[in-house]
Write a structure and sequence with these properties.
6-stranded parallel β-sheet, 4 domains, EC 2.2.1.6, 644 residues, Rossmann fold, alpha/beta, globular, Acetolactate_synth_lsu
Length: 644
């Protein structure tokens, strides 16, 4: 097995003390640390997140009141990474963070992996021990280049001060170009303290890195002909279309062809929900209309999507009658999970702009396919199977109802952020999205604790690029929130008036749902607090916790209290606000497809499987059965799949 770059570096003799000396003398003389700060300024970076430490102190020493970017001190390195992610998604800019070596760098690996899965442009600068100490197990030494190689788009080890501007220019370009992603720059103290001669712009050295943006060959003509021959087309839109800022093009393609739009979780809002072509999210917790449309389609157009298992369910049973057009800027995604009949490598926005005229020409020559029958079926699903939920039996609030009220009372320009869990699914199902870049959530990695720091980053971005006119609401669960709740200090100290809706059910909700359905209601390690045993309102009491951090805090147990709290929160714009909503711990996310099962077996509500009986007209009340009934049904489906 080949060594990582840092392992290989350890084998290099360090006896030649002057081996890194350069003769370059054109430019302003400064240290590598100063060059890093200057490089970020010249790259147009306006905000940087991070936590200082010994191995990165020269860089922090170079940051002062005259520095051209704002530095935001988070309370944990992972939070710095998530804040940079939220900032990047909200603004379309590259998120930047600076942390120290060893545990500081290892703490941020989760955020790097999260950004990599969701194609978020980010530059992560980590401190590293001096060159002479590499390989000696020095204090807070860790092979960060090696550790991040599998979960980053690219990683650099910088040992020479003169390389700092070039590496920063390359890292920033790599992060934002092609398929966006996180780039790590591991900066030794030798490079930080060394002297160099600064000049800008830098000549980048990137042999072999040439992302394809325009479609080649006859693939566009082939794709246009497939649209012309389709009577059940579906546009399956993923996060890549959001990164490409292709919302207008997706809508134009849908308007032209009459194809419905279904989205993955990160693509929610790419076309407004008010558009009748938008059927919502598909897959494990998607709408019946979206999931059904894909299952019955004859042409599936994957646009910046990667056929994730949460979308496809049992892969062999996914869209079984559909031919596939797959558009993606990353050639590695084409054919990875589903063979494409027409593979198109290129930037989504660029490809769609070139494809639409070809479809228009075929429509002029041969007429437009009649999709009346197709839309009759789709509209039937939309009408009969909206997102529904059961009312609580214990007098608490229905979390789905809370999300609906948050959406109804919010500014249409609100940026919505979520943690990970049931609340994340309810948010994506029930919020009405009006604009692209309005939804920020951890998709591929599913990182609990993502929400609060990402919301802070989104608010910093809103202040910087939108004059704060895009308010930020975080919808989080008590389990996810507690993983990074220390960032309330960051939110308060940095003047970010984020609004936090905490759906507090005192359990790990999504895990509990699976335990209910598949593990005989054995709630092992998922109960966070039992009020009847402690006699306390919560452990922690989130109202007291938020107030201790300088935030405004409220608690809602009734619908009247909930509405009042939401309206008060929307009027507060000088500090963070947290609302502790006490919600039903046995609430379920419906619809649901059991992991690994066919999407045809999607359960709308207990006892109702619309795609197995597409002609049936089962009413919600008549078709509803007990939670145990649906648990047995889903468990049986899983057992059958495992036996096969």
């Amino acid at each position: 097995m080949s060594p990582t770059p840092l392992q290989a570096f350890r084998g290099v003799s360090k006896s030649a003390g002057d081996q890194h000396k350069r003769t370059i003398a054109d430019g302003e003389k400064m240290t590598g640390a100063q060059a890093l700060v200057r490089s970020l300024e010249d790259l147009g970076v306006k905000d940087v997140f991070g936590v200082p430490g010994g191995a990165i102190l020269p860089v922090y020493h170079a940051i002062n009141e005259e520095t051209g970017f704002r530095f935001i001190l988070t309370r944990h390195e992972q939070a710095a990474g998530h804040a940079a992610e939220g900032y990047a998604v909200a603004t379309g800019e590259v998120g930047v963070c600076i942390v120290t070596s060893g545990p500081g760098a290892t703490n941020i690996i989760t955020a790097i992996a999260d950004a990599n899965m969701d194609s978020i442009p980010m530059v992560v600068i980590t401190g590293q021990v001096g060159v002479d100490s590499i390989g000696t197990d020095a204090f807070q030494e860790a092979d960060i280049v090696g550790a991040t190689y599998p979960v980053a788009k690219h990683s650099y080890l910088v040992t020479n001060a003169q390389d700092v501007p070039r590496v920063l220019a390359e890292a920033h370009y790599i992060a934002r170009s092609g398929r966006p992603g996180p780039v790590v720059v591991d900066l030794t103290k030798t490079a930080q303290n060394g002297e160099m001669y600064y000049s800008w712009p830098q000549r980048m050295i990137l042999p072999g890195y040439n992302p394809v943006t325009e479609a080649h060959g006859r693939v566009l003509a082939d794709a246009a002909r497939m649209f012309q021959r389709s009577f059940r087309p579906v546009l399956y839109v993923g996060g890549g279309a959001v990164r490409s800022d292709a919302g207008d093009e997706v809508k134009a393609l849908s308007d032209l062809t009459g194809a419905p739009i279904v989205t993955t979780l990160p693509a929610r809002g790419i076309v407004p929900d008010s558009d009748p072509a938008v059927l919502g999210m598909l897959g494990m917790h998607g709408t019946i209309a979206a999931t059904g449309a894909v299952q019955r389609s004859d042409l599936l157009v994957a646009i910046g999507a990667r056929f994730d298992d949460r979308v496809t369910g049992k892969l062999e049973a996914f869209a079984p009658g559909a031919r596939v057009i797959h558009i993606d800027i990353d050639p590695a995604e084409i054919g990875k999970n589903r063979v494409a009949d027409v593979p198109i490598v290129g930037d989504v926005k660029t490809v769609l702009q070139a494809l639409i005229p070809q479809i228009e020409q075929l429509h002029k020559e041969h007429g437009k396919p009649d999709l009346t029958t197709w839309w009759t079926l789709l509209n039937k699903w939309v009408e009969q199977y909206p997102i529904a939920y059961e009312e609580p039996t214990d007098g608490t609030l229905a979390p789905q109802w809370v999300v609906q009220q948050l959406s109804a009372e919010a500014d249409p320009n609100t940026i919505w952020v979520s943690g990970v869990g049931q609340h994340q699914m309810w948010a994506t199902q029930l919020i009405e999205f009006h604009h692209p870049h309005q939804w920020i959530s951890s998709g591929g990695l599913g990182t609990m604790g993502f929400g609060l720091p990402a919301a802070i980053g989104a608010e910093i971005g809103s202040q910087q690029y939108f004059d704060g006119k895009k308010p930020v609401w975080l919808i989080d669960g008590d389990g996810s929130f507690q993983m990074t709740s220390e960032e309330l200090a960051t939110a308060f100290m940095e003047g970010t008036p984020i609004k936090i809706a905490l759906l507090n059910n005192s359990v790990y909700g999504m895990v509990r749902q699976w335990q209910t359905l598949f593990y005989e209601k054995h709630y092992s390690a998922t109960i966070l607090h039992e009020e009847e045993k402690t006699g306390l309102v919560g452990v922690p009491d989130f109202v007291k916790l938020a107030e201790a951090y300088g935030c405004v805090a409220m608690r809602a147990r009734t619908k009247e209290e909930a509405i009042e709290c939401i309206r008060k929160a929307n009027q507060i714009n000088d500090r963070p606000v947290l609302i502790d909503f006490h919600v039903w711990k046995d609430a379920m996310v419906w619809p649901m497809v059991a992991a690994g099962d066919s999407n045809d077996n999607v359960t709308y509500m207990p006892g109702i499987k619309p795609l197995l009986n597409p002609q049936g007209n089962v009413s919600l009340q008549d078709g509803r059965s007990s939670t145990q009934d649906v648990a047995e049904s889903l468990a049986e489906a899983v057992a059958t799949e495992e036996n096969n």
